[in-house]
Write a structure and sequence with these properties.
158 residues; alpha+beta; 4 helices
């Protein structure tokens, strides 16, 4: 056997071992996520709250309880999370919002939210209406592309 075929066999063996390891790690992470989802479902409750503010902030700047900061891994402490400041009853709390619904959370409105601990999983309007999704302001480049497409008679991209 020449050296090229030996090198290719070694690379192939390393890739196969890497794929097998990733498969088992992925399966373990999926089981862990399912358990966490079950815990969220078990502890969920519907609460009426007034949304004061929402931002993407670092965990240490969000004003969450100290025990939350202690329990999070050190790598995640610097990452930005969707944080919602809300008035629930007489007290004002900082809550972590689900990334999927963060854009649909209305600011300065009263909503019914499903929360699990300090985690907001879904939001509805106060009278059963779905909260309107806020339209993001379009940037300079997107606006100009849409204007040019309008002039050319093409359908605008969404």
């Amino acid at each position: 056997m020449n050296t090229l075929s030996i090198v290719l066999l070694v690379i192939l063996a390393v890739l196969i071992v890497g794929i097998v390891v990733l498969y088992f790690v992925g399966k373990k992470a999926q089981k862990k996520q399912e358990q966490q989802q079950e815990q969220l479902e078990a502890a969920k409750q519907t609460v009426s709250m007034l949304i004061i503010d929402k931002k993407r902030m670092k965990l240490k700047d969000a004003g969450l309880p100290a025990i939350v900061l202690e329990q999070t891994p050190k790598l995640l402490r610097g990452s930005k999370l969707p944080i919602v400041k809300a008035k629930i009853g007489p007290q004002i709390m900082s809550l972590v919002c689900d990334e999927k619904i963060f854009d649909s959370v209305p600011v300065k409105k009263e909503v019914k939210a499903v929360i699990s601990g300090i985690y907001i999983t879904s939001v509805k309007g106060l009278h059963g209406k779905a909260a309107p999704i806020e339209q993001k302001k379009k940037g300079f480049f997107k606006r100009n592309i849409e204007k040019l497409q309008e002039k050319a008679g093409a359908k605008p991209l969404k």
